[in-house]
Every structure is written in structure tokens, then in C-alpha cells.
């Protein structure tokens, strides 16, 4: 059913028995929305498009220039065609007019004898009005049938097939990188259709209709109908709209089912991360997920995506898919769960435990070089990898250490940063001391005289002390490292001895001072950094 009729169909009506199509034969499939009788030349502002024009040629008579101007206005206004009664005011159609009409596939139809325009308009308008009523009825019938199908179908392709059969057009569904063609086409035919869809300019009449499939405010797919046999009309677009709505409902239903399954899975994984499952229970659950799956220990990686304000939930979904793809290739079975704005990955080790860290490091290299900047709107990504545990029931230990590693990421210098808990060494001790005692007070006990001297005299004794210890007490190397003359270096060492005591380079005291300098930097980074990775 169509909301319009074509010129070819109008030519089958009784008033068009003795007509001749002299130009624009290729445009006979143009749709007609209304019929107008026109005898004026300036017509552009009077048309809305898809009108069939009836005229005797009174406006131009035998003036070819006026005739061409009139024709061009009709073409620019997207009129459907022109019917001319010969004999009264027009005797012939200039060749130039025919060429222009053929070029634009614009039909020109001649009446070789006098006809009653009023009877033609009444006939066609009655037909159009009846078709409008029929269109509403057919649209309602289509919607009802489609809604019933939604209760029975098992695959969304059945929705696409129903639309294709009803409209007799080519249907193409775009799902990310996937293209679904109903009916199926050969590779060459698919390429032609895709080129037509992606073309900036289409044929002289529109043969493509497209509608996004929106779910929860996001575009999940796009549905396109294509035909070379006729124009895509209002009825086609209404059917397309109903079909995309039904498709969205079907996909949303699947998402709810999947979300419910994930919630049940997330509850189990949360208990796993909290240490509530035994080794036997974990093995039983993994066997249910993937029979034959054997894991040799595991690790937890917590992740924080610092998303931009324009980013969407789909960014996180894409990132999880990317992470899973990369690390599964490195010999891990990846589980993921979102907990309080963090993504937690449990990586079950499928290979020898000896190589887990090197494989993780290779995975992070690939992740950092992956071209996902166009698809995920994140300014940076923080990772924290916990301890490797041999028993899967101890995965909660890896989780706690992974959270601690992530928490430290924003507090460490570039040199001290690492994704791995095993690499943090002294910072793990500092974090532990800082949580259970006053680390600031301990640092001040050792370094307060030096800090107060620098603050009072704008000195650089803390910097000198770090370099001196790093150079193992070599004054010459320290002077080169700080770009100062040897005499200045001697003066600074003397001042440090007066503030810290002449024994500050003795082994035990030196070790304590080095540790306090590390703690001093740790506290400074904690104060100056605005952490984004909070406690999970």
C-alpha cells in the first residue's frame, strides 16, 4: 500500500486513454501527491512538491523561453510531471524542452484532444483520499501484526524480513561493523547497495529511507530501505518507523535478559572478590560457564576510566571488549564487573604462572598502543594489578592489593609508577605506615631542621641531600649532578652535618634518612595531587 500513486498508474485511468508521453519516460515511477491546474508562469512559490500539473499552455503559448522557465521551476519545486492539452494555446513541444525534461527524468504528457481537467482532478483526488484512508488502515494492521510477532520471534531478522516482504524493498540493518541484508545479496550487489546508501547525492528521486534504532538514548543500529523501482514515500517511512520501534523493543528485551543474567553473575563475582567462595565452588561455577576450563591461579586488575563530559556508557563497554580481546590473547580468561565507577577484571591464568607478569605487561603495551582514541572519549586510564594468587579462592587478596595499587597511582612520581603491586616495594610500606600512624610526624622528626632551613633561607638542602645520597657520598659527582661548584657543595654538606649530625652518612641513619626522603616525596604528592581513583 502506498500513500501516493505513480504517474504510470495515473496513465491507466480512463481520462488518460489518448495521451502521449513525449519526454521523461524514465520518471514515470514518480509519486503524485496532488493534482493542480496551472495557467500562470511564476509557479515556484505555489508548489509543495509531488504535484502533477495540468495546463493548456496559456502562460507561454508559443514562447519557448517562457516554456523553459516554467519547466525549470517545476523541476526545482520537485513537481511530479506536466500534462499539456494541445491545440488550444500550444501546438507543439520544442525539442529543447524535451531534452531538458529527459535530462531530469521529468515526464511531459500530451493530451491530443480537449479534456475536462475538473473531472481528472476529481478522479485522482478521490483516489488519493481513499488511499490515505487505506494507508492508515494498513499501517495499523502492520503495527498490530508486528506486535504479535514480537511475542513469538526468536531472531530480530524475522522483523526485518516482515518489513521487506511488506514493502518489497531491499532492507539493510547496520549494527556497528555488521551489515544485515534482507534479502541476501552477492558480494558485488552488496557493494553497489552500500555505495548507493553512502553516496552524498542519490538519483533524481529519493530511493533511500533510513531510521536510527534508539535504545535508552543511544543509537544501537540503523535501518535502511533501498529501492530502484520507485520513490520512497510517506507510507514507506511510516512502516520503517514502526519497524525500527519494534526492533528497538526486541533488542531492549534481549538487553534486559542479558542484564539480569549479568546481575546474577555480578552477585556471584562480588562474593568471589570478597572471598566467600571455596575452590570447589569456584571450579564448579567455571565448569558451568565453560566446560573444560582450567585455570592456574589468577590476578585482579582494577581500572578507572577518566571519561570526558561528552563520553557515554558505550565507551566503557567498548573498553571492556578491547581489554578482554587483548588479554585473552595473552593467555588469560577474563571476567569483568563494574563496582562503584570502577571496572574490575578478574584474569584467570590459563598458562604457566611463571610468565603471568610478562604477559600482563605485553597486554598493557598493546592496550596503550591500540587505536581506540576515536571510539573511547577518555583523557587517561588508571590501572592497578594486584598480587598473583595460586588459589582462586584467594582472589580477594589480589583484589585488595589491586585497589591499593590503583589508589597509589595518582600519588607516585613518574619514575615510581607501576601497574603492578609487586613493583611498588617501599611505597606499599609507606602507604601502610601512613594509614596506621602519623607519617608526617615521623618525617619531621628526621628532616625538620633541613626543611625549616630551606623554607627560611630559600635553600636547596633537601635537593642536595637527595643527590648526595644517590651519589653514595661523592661530593664531586653530586656537584656535577646539581651543576654547582665544588666550594658550594662543601658548604652545603657542612650545613647538612650541622643540621642532621656528622653521622648522618652512617649506614643505619643513612638508611632511615633515605626512607624519610621517600616518605617526604610521597606526602608531597599526596597533598598536591587530586586523586581520581578513590577507594573501591
UniProtKB/TrEMBL annotation:
It comes from Alkalihalobacterium chitinilyticum. The lineage of its organism: Bacteria, Bacillati, Bacillota, Bacilli, Bacillales. Residues 461-519 form the PucR C-terminal helix-turn-helix domain. It holds the Pfam family PucR. This is PucR family transcriptional regulator ligand-binding domain-containing protein. InterPro entries: CdaR-like_regulators, PucR_C-HTH_dom, PucR_C-HTH_sf, PucR_dom. Residues 9-128 form the Purine catabolism PurC-like domain.
Amino acid at each position: 500500500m502506498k500513500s501516493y500513486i505513480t504517474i504510470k498508474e495515473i496513465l491507466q485511468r480512463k481520462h488518460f486513454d489518448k495521451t502521449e508521453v513525449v519526454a521523461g519516460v524514465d520518471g514515470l515511477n514518480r509519486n503524485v501527491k496532488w493534482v493542480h491546474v496551472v495557467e500562470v508562469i511564476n509557479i515556484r512559490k505555489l508548489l509543495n512538491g509531488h504535484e502533477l500539473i495540468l495546463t493548456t499552455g496559456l502562460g507561454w503559448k508559443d514562447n519557448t523561453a517562457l516554456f523553459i522557465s516554467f519547466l525549470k521551476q517545476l523541476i526545482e519545486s520537485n513537481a511530479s510531471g506536466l500534462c499539456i492539452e494541445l491545440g488550444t494555446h500550444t501546438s507543439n513541444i520544442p525539442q529543447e524542452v524535451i531534452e531538458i525534461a529527459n535530462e531530469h527524468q521529468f515526464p511531459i504528457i500530451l493530451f491530443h484532444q480537449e479534456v475536462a481537467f475538473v473531472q481528472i482532478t476529481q478522479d485522482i483526488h478521490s483516489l488519493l483520499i481513499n488511499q490515505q484512508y487505506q494507508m492508515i488502515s494498513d499501517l495499523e494492521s502492520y503495527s498490530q501484526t508486528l506486535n504479535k510477532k514480537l511475542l513469538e520471534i526468536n531472531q530480530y531478522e524475522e522483523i526485518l524480513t516482515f518489513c521487506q516482504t511488506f514493502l518489497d524493498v531491499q532492507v539493510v540493518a547496520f549494527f556497528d561493523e555488521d551489515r544485515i541484508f534482507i534479502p541476501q545479496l552477492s558480494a558485488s550487489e552488496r557493494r553497489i547497495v552500500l555505495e548507493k546508501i553512502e553516496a552524498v547525492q542519490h538519483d533524481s528521486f529519493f530511493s533511500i529511507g533510513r531510521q536510527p534504532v534508539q535504545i535508552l538514548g543511544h543509537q544501537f543500529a540503523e535501518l535502511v530501505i533501498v529501492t530502484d523501482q520507485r520513490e520512497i514515500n510517506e507510507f514507506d517511512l511510516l512502516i520503517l518507523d514502526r519497524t525500527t520501534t519494534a526492533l528497538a523493543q526486541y533488542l531492549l528485551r534481549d538487553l534486559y535478559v542479558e542484564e539480569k543474567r549479568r546481575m546474577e553473575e555480578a552477585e556471584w563475582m562480588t562474593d568471589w572478590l570478597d572471598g566467600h567462595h571455596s575452590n570447589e565452588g569456584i571450579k564448579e561455577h567455571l565448569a558451568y560457564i565453560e566446560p573444560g576450563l582450567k585455570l592456574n591461579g589468577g590476578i585482579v586488575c582494577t581500572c578507572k576510566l577518566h571519561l570526558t563530559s561528552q563520553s557515554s556508557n558505550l565507551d566503557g563497554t567498548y573498553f571492556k571488549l578491547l581489554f578482554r580481546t587483548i588479554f585473552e590473547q595473552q593467555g588469560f580468561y577474563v571476567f569483568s564487573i563494574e563496582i562503584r565507577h570502577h571496572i574490575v577484571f578478574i584474569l584467570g591464568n590459563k598458562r604457566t604462572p611463571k610468565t603471568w607478569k610478562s604477559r600482563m605487561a605485553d597486554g598493557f603495551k598493546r592496550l596503550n598502543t591500540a587505536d581506540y582514541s576515536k571510539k573511547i572519549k577518555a583523557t587517561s586510564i588508571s590501572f592497578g594489578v594486584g598480587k598473583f594468587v595460586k588459589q582462586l579462592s584467594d582472589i580477594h587478596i589480589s583484589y585488595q592489593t589491586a585497589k591499593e595499587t590503583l589508589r597509589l597511582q595518582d600519588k607516585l612520581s613518574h619514575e615510581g609508577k607501576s601497574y603492578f603491586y609487586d613493583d611498588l616495594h617501599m611505597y606499599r610500606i609507606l602507604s601502610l605506615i601512613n594509614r596506621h600512624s602519623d607519617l608526617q610526624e615521623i618525617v619531621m622528626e628526621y628532616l625538620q631542621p633541613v626543611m625549616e632551613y630551606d623554607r627560611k633561607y630559600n635553600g636547596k638542602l633537601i635537593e642536595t641531600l637527595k643527590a648526595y645520597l644517590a651519589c653514595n657520598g661523592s661530593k664531586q659527582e653530586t656537584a656535577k649532578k646539581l651543576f654547582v661548584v665544588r666550594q658550594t657543595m662543601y658548604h652545603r654538606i657542612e650545613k647538612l652535618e650541622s643540621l642532621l649530625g656528622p653521622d648522618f652518612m652512617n649506614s643505619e641513619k643513612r638508611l632511615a634518612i633515605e626512607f624519610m626522603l621517600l616518605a617526604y616525596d610521597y606526602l608531597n604528592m599526596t597533598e598536591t595531587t587530586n586523586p581520581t581513583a578513590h577507594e573501591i
